[in-house]
């Protein structure tokens, strides 16, 4: 399997390009400003992009879904709760996408937003968690129909039940870390690890006192239009 991790520094966003042995590919959480980098990679490696997966509707950057779809004919994929009517595929929990011999399972993991998806490659023990589970953290829950209770449940019943050696690739990291494992997050995550109870987690999230996302008023409308400029 071919796996490339890209990093967009302004929003600290990770994008992932995955390809099989027949050069069929998917991309996860592409950022508009990095479009030319993705297209060059696709061209250089002669990759055929099949799907554009969004882990959720991001509030801190504009998606590259629309221009990627236009240039590659790939299908854009979001959870049906997102209200993104321009997407090609509106999915729910348990949908399976084939990439050659690899199966990509879409796992509904709401809480950061009500439309969050994680994508699990069982054959490689890899999960792409979006903002649901970050390295030593998690996504905030104070906008976009977020719920701390729901996020706790999603992580403990959907993500922490994966094999402990599963590699965790998040949508963001603000400290230069590229990946983690389920075992490490269970043991070390300051918000969720070390057996923290749901009540403890909800209290932590309630007292984060985070600033209003500076790009949300621009990014959300654009991302609900698949990043399509009017």
Topology of this structure?
Elements: E1 2-8, E2 13-19, E3 24-28, H1 35-44, E4 48-53, H2 65-72, E5 75-79, E6 89-91, E7 96-99, E8 102-108, E9 117-121, E10 126-130, H3 148-159, E11 167-170, E12 180-181, H4 182-188, H5 198-206, H6 216-223
Parallel strand pairs: 3-4, 4-5, 5-6, 10-11
Antiparallel strand pairs: 1-2, 2-3, 7-8, 8-9, 9-10, 11-12
Organism: Acinetobacter pollinis
Protein name: MBL fold metallo-hydrolase
InterPro entries: Metallo-B-lactamas, Mito_Persulfide_Diox, POD-like_MBL-fold, RibonucZ/Hydroxyglut_hydro
Protein model, in words:
The structure is a single chain. Helix 3 (148-159) crosses helix 5 (198-206). The strands form two sheets. Strands 1-2-3-4-5-6 form a six-stranded mixed beta sheet. The protein has a six-stranded mixed beta sheet with strand order 7-8-9-10-11-12. It is 23% helix and 26% strand. It has helices at 35-44, 65-72, 148-159, 182-188, 198-206, 216-223, and strands at residues 2-8, 13-19, 24-28, 48-53, 75-79, 89-91, 96-99, 102-108, 117-121, 126-130, 167-170, 180-181. A hairpin with an 8-residue loop joins strand 8 (102-108) and strand 9. The chain has a single domain (2-208), classed as Metallo-beta-lactamase, Chain A, CATH 3.60.15. It is α/β, with parallel strands linked by helices and 230 residues long.
């Amino acid at each position: 399997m071919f796996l490339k991790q890209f990093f967009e520094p302004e929003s600290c966003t990770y994008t992932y390009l995955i390809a099989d042995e027949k050069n069929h590919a998917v991309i996860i959480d592409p950022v508009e400003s990095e479009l030319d980098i993705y297209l060059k990679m696709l061209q250089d490696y002669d990759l055929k992009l099949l799907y554009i997966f969004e882990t959720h509707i991001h509030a801190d950057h504009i998606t590259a879904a629309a221009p990627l779809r236009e240039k590659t004919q790939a299908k854009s994929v979001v959870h049906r709760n997102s209200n993104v009517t321009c997407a090609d595929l509106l999915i729910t929990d348990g949908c399976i996408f084939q990439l050659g011999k690899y199966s990509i399972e879409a796992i509904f993991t709401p809480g950061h937003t009500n439309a969050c998806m994680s994508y699990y490659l069982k054959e490689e023990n890899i999960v792409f968690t979006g903002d649901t589970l970050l390295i030593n953290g998690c996504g905030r829950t104070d906008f976009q129909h977020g719920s701390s209770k729901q996020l706790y449940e999603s992580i403990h019943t959907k993500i922490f039940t994966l094999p402990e050696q599963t590699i965790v690739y998040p949508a963001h990291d603000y400290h230069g870390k590229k990946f983690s494992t389920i075992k490490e997050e269970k043991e070390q995550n300051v918000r969720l690890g070390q057996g923290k109870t749901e009540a403890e987690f909800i209290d932590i999230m309630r007292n984060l006192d985070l600033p209003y996302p500076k790009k949300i008023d621009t990014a959300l409308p654009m991302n609900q239009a698949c990043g399509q400029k009017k």
